[in-house]
Automatic annotation (TrEMBL):
Record's catalysed reaction(s): dCMP + ATP = dCDP + ADP; CMP + ATP = CDP + ADP
Species assigned in the record: Pollutimonas thiosulfatoxidans
Family membership: Belongs to the cytidylate kinase family. Type 1 subfamily.
InterPro entries membership: Cytidylate_kin (IPR003136), Cytidylate_kinase_dom (IPR011994), P-loop_NTPase (IPR027417)
GO cellular component: cytosol
Name of the featured protein: Cytidylate kinase
PANTHER family: CYTIDYLATE KINASE, CYTIDYLATE KINASE/PANTOATE-BETA-ALANINE LIGASE
Keyword DNA-binding on entry: no
Keywords, comma-separated and alphabetical: ATP-binding, Cytoplasm, Kinase, Nucleotide-binding, Transferase
EC top class, as a word: transferase
Residues given in the record as ATP binding sites: 14-22
Ranges of residues in domain Cytidylate kinase: 10-217
């Protein structure tokens, strides 16, 4: 796809629980665009690996699972082989496994073109950890969303409890620190801001305020929300 004629993309990268997904959906809604939750693809792979009994240490086997995923996104539904698993993939156990297998180069390669296929008119808001650095390096606007790890752990704890899951803040905080370190230090597509990304610290910003900052950056490029 020629960059000159490619549909526009806004990438929103950042560490776990920084609010990427929520912000991406709100920005996409404001613009009338599609949204890509790239983390869901890795979580779906982790869930499928667990359900199929595949050895999570076997990089090629995990990549094969990813290549054969029967996945569909329909509104709030996340369908794996026609079964809604939206709640299952948000469990911390699956999130931690997803973070582990996401470091596998064969898996990242297997999911690369699948992610790029989401790029359609009128535009795409893509959230993840390497959207601006690897998947859509030509995106006209790249956001790197950060927040204090304590604030992120508290958000995740509240989110889990609201969805009926048990959650322990100290445990979540420790898991998040470990996941951050794993994401930043992996050899393949580490978590890092693209050189031309705008860094937004959402620690003390509301969701609406963060969305407005992103939209202001987009408007500054000469574009407007719908």
């Amino acid at each position: 796809m020629s960059a000159s004629f490619a549909p526009p993309v806004i990438t929103i990268d950042g560490p776990t629980a920084s609010g990427k997904g929520t912000i991406a959906h709100r920005v996409a809604s404001a613009l009338g665009w599609d949204v890509l939750d790239s983390g869901a693809l890795y979580r779906l792979t982790a869930l499928a690996v667990r359900q199929l009994g595949v050895d999570a240490d076997d990089e090629l086997a995990v990549a094969q699972v990813a290549a054969e995923l029967d996945v569909a996104f329909q509104g709030d539904l996340v369908l794996l082989s026609d079964v809604d698993v939206a709640a299952l993939i948000r469990q911390e156990e699956i999130g931690n496994l997803a973070s582990k297998v996401a470091a596998y180069p064969p898996l990242r390669h297997a999911l690369l073109e699948r992610q790029r296929a989401f790029r359609r008119l009128p535009g795409l808001v893509a959230d993840g950890r390497d959207m601006g650095t690897v998947v859509f390096p030509d995106a006209p606007l790249k956001i790197f969303l950060v927040a204090d790890v304590q604030a992120r752990a508290e958000r995740r704890c509240k989110q889990l409890k609201e969805k009926g899951f048990s959650a322990n803040l100290p445990g979540l905080l420790e898991d998040m620190r470990l996941r951050d370190e794993r994401d930043r230090s992996r050899a393949s597509a580490p978590l890092v801001a693209a050189p031309d990304a705008h860094i937004i610290d959402s620690s003390s910003l509301s969701i609406d305020e963060t969305v407005n900052v992103v939209l202001d950056h987009w408007s500054s490029l000469g574009f407007r929300a719908k």
